[in-house]
Amino acid sequence: MSLKCHLLHVCCAPDLVIAYLAGARGDVFFYNPNIHPKEEYEKRKHEVLKVARLFNLEVVEAEYDPENFFKSVRGLEHEPEGGKRCRVCFELRLRKTASVVKELGYASFSTTLTASPKKDVHTVNEVGKTVALETGTVYLANVYRKSPTYNDAQRLTKLLGIYRQNYCGCTFSRRVEQDENSSER
Hints:
Layout: E1 4-9, H1 13-21, E2 27-29, H2 38-54, E3 59-60, H3 66-72, H4 84-104, E4 106-111, H5 121-135, H6 150-159, H7 171-184
Parallel strand pairs: 1-2, 1-4, 2-3
Helix pairs in contact: 1-2, 1-6, 4-5
């Protein structure tokens, strides 16, 4: 089996734009069983595919698997945003990415989760390194949101009309976002 270069776990199209402009290359892997509802998942996936075509990136397909997410975070439903539930979610997605890395023969992997200002970069990279160590893969830690091209990526996303979500993706973060919006009124 010939070794493929890099697999980039992608959580959404705006973060893919940020990572790409910051220099990330490789094949795209959209695995996000946390995204709820299904319509939101489909919308985000569609936008990732659109950006991947624009940048001429190959996409590795994965099934939508919300049952796995809910099983993984059972008992953590009332955790605050950014807490233990999020760490479990990062681990779920990065473990799946690492398994695809091994299965398809990639040299390394990383994630666009570090592009989002709503994610704890230290936690994401810590989880990525741990998963890599445990699975015998190579994780390339990064901080895409600190890229000098971050603002350019924001402008390009807007110019291209790329859908930008207003919550992390899971039903729990959606509930938090809705609660915050209703308290602002």
